[in-house]
Amino acid sequence: MFYEIKDNKIILNVKAQPNSSKNKIAGLYGEDAIKINIKAPAVEGAANKELIKFLSKMFKVSKNDIIIKGETSKKKQIIMPINEKVKEFIEGLK
Fold first, then answer.
1. pLDDT (mean) for 11-26
2. Helices (H) and strands (E) in the chain, counts
3. Between 3 and 93, where is the model more confident?
4. How would you classify the pairing of strands 9-17 and 34-37?
5. What NCBIfam families does its record include (predicted)?
6. Which of 11, 24, 49, 91 is most solvent-facing, going by the fewest CB within 10 Å?
7. Is this prediction's pTM over 0.90?
C-alpha cells in the first residue's frame, strides 16, 4: 500500500524524481509508492523544498505541516494532515 492513515495524518510513500521538466505526480510506482517528478535538482535540499512547495499547493496544506522522512533518499515518506483534497487524490489512485 502506498499510504497509511494514522492520527488524522497521511503517510505517503514517495519515489522522487528530481531534474524533471515539470512538477507532477506521475502515478503509482509499483504497488507501494507514488512517483513524483520534481523540477529542482537533488542538490542541497532543493528538490525536497520544491517537493514540499508542490504538495502544499496541490493539497492546500501549510508547508510547515509537511514532514519528509528519508531526505537524502529517492524513496521518501511524506507525512501531512489529511483533508478533502488528499482524500480525493487517494480515491483517484485506488
1. 97
2. 2, 6
3. 3
4. parallel
5. DUF167 family protein
6. 91
7. yes
Distances 34 to 20, 27, 39, 44, 80 between C-alpha atoms, Å: 15, 6, 16, 23, 15
Mean pLDDT of 27-53: 95
Residue-level pLDDT at 93: 83
- What integer pLDDT is reported at residue 94 of this predicted model? 73
> Mapping DSSP to helix (H, G, I), strand (E, B) and coil, where does residue 78 land?
strand
Within 8 A by CB and 6+ apart from 50, the residues are: 23, 38, 39, 40
Q: Is the dihedral of CA 9, 59, 48, 1 positive or negative?
A: positive
Q: Which has the closest alpha carbon to 16: 65, 51, 67?
A: 51
First to last CA, the chain: 10
